[in-house]
Amino acid sequence: SDLNSDRQALLDFASLVPHTRNLNWTYNTSICTSWLGITCNDNGTRVVSIHLPGFGLFGAIPFNTIGKLDALGVLSLRSNHLNGNLPPDIPSIPTLQSIYLQHNNFSGEIPNFLSSQLSVLDFSFNSFSGNIPTSLTNSPRLKRLNLSYNILIGPIPYSLRKFPISSFAGNSYLCGPPLPYCSTITLSPSPSPSTMDISYPPEVLGDQNSGSDTELKPVGIMSIAIGGSSILTLSIMVFFFCCLKKKDSKSSGSFPKGKAEHEEKNELVFLPGRSYTFHMDDLLQASAEVLGKGSYGTTYKVWLYEGTAVVVKRLGEVGAGKTEFEEQMESIGRLRQHPNVVPLRAYYFSKNEKLLVFDYAMGGSLSGNNGLGRTLLDWTSRLKIALGTAKGIAHIHSQGGRNFTHGNIKSTNVLLSPFQESCVSDFGLTPLSISLSTPRAPGYRAPEVIKTQKVTQKSDVYSYGVLLLEMLTGRDPLNSSGQGDGVDLPMWVRSVVREERTVQVFDAQLNGYQIVEQEMLKMLHVALSCIAEAPEVRPTMSEVVGMIEEFWKPEMHNKKPSSGNKNPSSGNKKPPS
Ligand SMILES: Nc1ncnc2c1ncn2[C@@H]1O[C@H](COP(=O)(O)OP(=O)(O)OP(=O)(O)O)[C@@H](O)[C@H]1O
């Protein structure tokens, strides 16, 4: 086989599959540089990927055409109107790594997959029926699997149990871990397909997701989390295709462009010194899941090729114009990298769309509202996170200049590595004067910010103090004292301390460890100084780092497991105040 046979196979494919969008595939043009949706290998000798999402393709796939592309690595025909059964040809292409057929009308059983290279398979939102083929369990490289919203039945094969619920959701008769056990008749754990229509904008899906799955809701620090994801996997590509335009010659003829958009240079802007090499096209072609909706907009985890995930934050309304926006991005980009700060990798600005691209933090957020399995964080982990977070904010303050603030410190913006190294994210966005869809983190806001709406480095210190209180008390600052009594967390803590009931402040889960109690008291002291009413009395963030390091350093702790030595008699003892 060679490029000529690839060309012929594709021309046959195009002639056999009706399509509503124009394919510019003609015999005389260069297949590797000008054919829409086609990518060749580096030396231009073979076709290695086909991406035709949302091209209005109809009918069955003529497998005798695509099956001839024996160097094909990626096949994406998602979000079309394709139907019929899948015969075994496609899966047996030896080089096939990723196959995206989600959001079509395929039916019948999923054929046996023979490609040992297979790493991504997305067949969600079709009408596949029958059992999950056992051959899938023999795909050693399979990293992502999405079979959700089909009509599959029976137990989930053992080796596929490692995939999250979202891989299987919406198949009423599938059962076994990670879904409920098969011995009982199970109902679909997520909304039925009829309530999940492709025409919903991603935000609606995101809301539905968080609203329908109570397990995924934020529940505060008492259930701080690490573990595996169970968020409903969604494709945001339809949305991206609607809203974003490609700029290269390959696509310019085919993607309808608005007048204003036409004049804009719609490409991702990478911040200097960062090492990613992806393009807008890669984001367009990747699939994604909604991580959540925050005050700035909706956040997605987007899977690039080779298993790399990035986080794309789609900003809602931005008050700042393009120049102002770019200047702020440059200020953010100028910050030196720091182990406790999530780097902004790239941004995208057009009239209708503003996107920020960050690294993906594997451990989820401190608040645990990202759908990961939850484990209680012990005191040592909380100390480590508190110190790391303080260092991250101190770095932002010292590098960004006097007026540079984080502006949105709260537990969902403290992200964790699998080893509970903490990283602060979402900083430096307040100057964009983004009109907020929801009020930004009310429980963390310094009193002067509530009055003036202006954030400062000292108001960051206040928010950090509230975050410390959250870690000490296990209570959610956004939900007052956690008692439903409408008292805000700093006020509640101050009143308990005043009444000399200090020990009652602390998270009951941590009680009973003597060394811990001493450290907790010291930390409480730091927190109280951060939440001083008058901004000028509060310490700076680098002072906060010093205050914590005075009594605790991670290296020190490695030798002395403070949370391991439980002293049962100390639990009810009144500590010195
Ligand atoms: N880089 C990242 N890696 C992993 N998870 C992330 C990342 N960025 C955000 N998240 C998670 O995605 C979810 C949504 O984030 P988002 O920032 O949109 O909302 P938020 O933090 O609740 O509010 P805000 O917009 O005010 O920051 C949160 O649970 C957050 O912890």
UniProtKB/TrEMBL annotation:
<keyword id="KW-0547">Nucleotide-binding</keyword>
<dbReference type="InterPro" id="IPR017441">
    <property type="entry name" value="Protein_kinase_ATP_BS"/>
</dbReference>
<dbReference type="Pfam" id="PF08263">
    <property type="entry name" value="LRRNT_2"/>
</dbReference>
<dbReference type="InterPro" id="IPR050994">
    <property type="entry name" value="At_inactive_RLKs"/>
</dbReference>
<dbReference type="Pfam" id="PF00560">
    <property type="entry name" value="LRR_1"/>
</dbReference>
<keyword id="KW-0812">Transmembrane</keyword>
<dbReference type="Pfam" id="PF07714">
    <property type="entry name" value="PK_Tyr_Ser-Thr"/>
</dbReference>
<feature type="compositionally biased region" description="Low complexity">
    <location>
        <begin position="561"/>
        <end position="577"/>
    </location>
</feature>
<feature type="transmembrane region" description="Helical">
    <location>
        <begin position="219"/>
        <end position="244"/>
    </location>
</feature>
<keyword id="KW-0597">Phosphoprotein</keyword>
<dbReference type="InterPro" id="IPR000719">
    <property type="entry name" value="Prot_kinase_dom"/>
</dbReference>
<keyword id="KW-0433">Leucine-rich repeat</keyword>
<keyword id="KW-0732">Signal</keyword>
<feature type="binding site">
    <location>
        <position position="313"/>
    </location>
    <ligand>
        <name>ATP</name>
    </ligand>
</feature>
<protein>
    <recommendedName>
        <fullName>Protein kinase domain-containing protein</fullName>
    </recommendedName>
</protein>
<keyword id="KW-0472">Membrane</keyword>
<keyword id="KW-0067">ATP-binding</keyword>
<dbReference type="GO" id="GO:0004672">
    <property type="term" value="F:protein kinase activity"/>
</dbReference>
<dbReference type="GO" id="GO:0005524">
    <property type="term" value="F:ATP binding"/>
</dbReference>
<dbReference type="InterPro" id="IPR011009">
    <property type="entry name" value="Kinase-like_dom_sf"/>
</dbReference>
<keyword id="KW-1133">Transmembrane helix</keyword>
<dbReference type="InterPro" id="IPR001611">
    <property type="entry name" value="Leu-rich_rpt"/>
</dbReference>
<feature type="region of interest" description="Disordered">
    <location>
        <begin position="555"/>
        <end position="577"/>
    </location>
</feature>
<feature type="domain" description="Protein kinase">
    <location>
        <begin position="285"/>
        <end position="552"/>
    </location>
</feature>
<dbReference type="InterPro" id="IPR001245">
    <property type="entry name" value="Ser-Thr/Tyr_kinase_cat_dom"/>
</dbReference>
<dbReference type="GO" id="GO:0016020">
    <property type="term" value="C:membrane"/>
</dbReference>
<dbReference type="InterPro" id="IPR032675">
    <property type="entry name" value="LRR_dom_sf"/>
</dbReference>
<dbReference type="InterPro" id="IPR013210">
    <property type="entry name" value="LRR_N_plant-typ"/>
</dbReference>
<keyword id="KW-0677">Repeat</keyword>
